Amino acid sequence: MKARVRKKRLDRGIKARTDTIFLVASWKDILYVLMPRALPVLILLLIPLFLGHYENKVLFHACVYGLLALSFDFLANCGLFSLGQSFFFGVGCYFVGIYDKFLQIPIYLSIPFSAISTGVVCAALLSPVVRLRGVYFAMITLILPMLLMKLVEATGVMGGSHGMPGIKGFPNEEVGVYLGIITFLFLIFFLRRLMGSDYGLVLRAIKEDDRSVMSSAINIYWYKVQAIFIAACIGGFAGAITTHHFQFLGMSSFALDYSILPIAATALGGQGTFAGAALGSMILVPLSELLRELGGLRMALYCGILVSCILLLPEGLFHFLSRRYHQFQVEAKVE
Amino acid sequence: MSLLIYGLIQSITLALYAVGFSLVYGVSGIANFSHGAIYILSGYLIWAGLNLLNFPYALSFLMAICLTGFLGFSFYWILLYRVRGIPLAELVVTFASGVAILELMTWAGFSGIRYSLPPVVFGSVEVFDVSLDYQRLMVLGTGIFLVLGLYLFVHHTRIGLAFRAMAQSERTALSIGIESDWVGSLSMALGSAVSAVSAVAILPLGIMEPTIGYEVLIYALAVAIVGGLESTPGMVAGGFVIGYGQLITAKFFGPKWMIIVPLLIIILVLAVKPSGIFGKMKELEERV
């Protein structure tokens, strides 16, 4: 008699009726749960050892843009849609300039200092506008980096349009790359955990319905300022490590690239889960490196990807892949 | 005196930047971030009409208006129609396509002295001992013409009334037979055409290059935020506040501080009256 087979969903036995509680009975089950989390981490941690100088630079870039995408996704999760990640990035870069050039602080202090100072300054600068919602907040954050760029150009502070060379670099290249990767990985898990906590619940509730959060006697503006602080710290950190990596500081740190690419990455990967933003930047940045000879056309290409993602794949790549993974079927023999 | 007159021209210029943007936003609630790109594109269309097709000024101007209007119209049906009702998706789509247009133009090398528009009218006139060329007077005239024309249009024509109905309540407008997608796309078309009209008045005054698109967008947003997003008088008021503010700053503190003015005014206005100078209460709820 021919053996009869039926299709069996892998996750049925493991998920205990919900998506978040797992019932593991064997190594296979543990592997099923852990693999999507552990595999990217392992790959990212090991891959710099096998890559050359140029590829490591690309990887570093991907991590920097990934950090910015995380910062964008975090703010979007709190209902603050920011079109100006380059604002955080640029302020972080210029703080490194201050700490490194004028105060001569060693590198392992200047990075955290500038990340935190960026957080404080950006939260203070944006605090008058946290009352704005949606499109209005987006407009302000779009204008800010452009105006700051013009301000630097016009007043000539910190080197003006020539920039400032001679920032201290990392002791060797791998340190910078690994710093980027480890922070990036840590932040993905940290932000996911944060959004699941009670604190994150308030932030997510502000996005869904801020009136009802206000009616529970929670000061939403204070929470929004805190959210901006966190996001600006991440953006400022990205700026700080980039400046130290390239040992150069210039007006281009306020460029539109640093705003558009994180948004495009988040749109490609899927909004809401930070893993989506990370995935998107890991795809987009190497892709744009491949297309380097296109020059100025790359920006138009990002925009094309962004628009087509929003129109054609609104849920994003990560949601799509994770659904596929959970619906994975194997053939089982019917007894 | 020259400060007063050039401030007036500067203010009208800023108001002209913002009128098209505020028209689209006021009617359909779409924040059209591709405004700057469409503005500069219309400038290049006029240039193409003059230099490539050897049209007279009036004809190439007309062609540019029609083409940008059609561009705005098709923009709505191709892109915005699919994401209608999700403000942030609308914003990202318009912004990204605007940047795409601008970057494509930069890539194609549309800059330099070759790409400049000659003045529509030559000559100048003395006003209160200040020499003022006709082109600047034309900016003033276009500003007055557009504001008056838009006022008459939205108050006394069927389409204009449909625009206002849409602006007040989309659903009610739908229930009396005004199709919101048609009105929305028409408002995009009109907004783009208006930006083409302002382009023909303003662009001959300076150089023409794609980066101006970003500048126009920044100033349009600044003026719109200060003036209250949806009202045309608000645009004029916002233009005056920022325009005179900039000129006075340039005179007393030096031109390099000019760029701070819009930023400071925006923050001030947002802190004191978040709905803008001419904004309505309804807006206040949406914004804050």
Strand content of chain A: under 5%
**Main sheet characteristics of chain A:** 2 strands, antiparallel
Helical proportion of chain B?
over 70%
Tell me the radius of gyration of chain B: 19 Å
**Series of secondary-structure elements of chain B, N-terminal to C-terminal:** HHHHEEHHHHHHHH
Which class do the helix and strand fractions of chain B yield?
mainly alpha
The rough form of chain B would be described as: globular
Sheet with the most strands, sense and barrel status of chain B:
2 strands, antiparallel
| Strand arrangement, major sheet of chain A | 1-4
Instruction: Report the order of strands and helices of chain A.
Output: EHHHHHEHHHHEHHHHE
Tell how many strands the DSSP assignment of chain B holds.
Answer: 2
CATH class of chain B: Mainly Alpha
Give me the oligomer status. Answer: heterodimer
Description:
Chain A is mainly alpha-helical and 335 residues long. Chain A has helices spanning 27-50, 53-77, 85-102, 107-126, 134-155, 173-196, 198-208, 210-215, 220-246, 257-269, 274-290, 297-312, 317-326; strands at residues 5-9, 164-165, 248-249, 329-333. With 288 residues, chain B is mostly helical. Chain B has twelve helices and two strands; from the N terminus they run H-H-H-H-E-E-H-H-H-H-H-H-H-H. Chain B has helices at 2-28, 35-51, 57-83, 87-107, 134-156, 158-168, 170-175, 180-202, 212-227, 232-253, 260-272, 281-287; strands spanning 124-127, 130-133. In chain B, helix 1 packs antiparallel against helix 10, helix 2 crosses helix 8 and helix 5 packs across helix 6. The interface between A and B is large, with 41 and 41 residues.
Keywords:
heterodimer; A: 335 residues; mainly alpha; two-stranded antiparallel sheet; 13 helices; globular; B: 288 residues; ABC transporter involved in vitamin B12 uptake, BtuC; two-stranded antiparallel ribbon; 12 helices; 3% strand; disordered C terminus
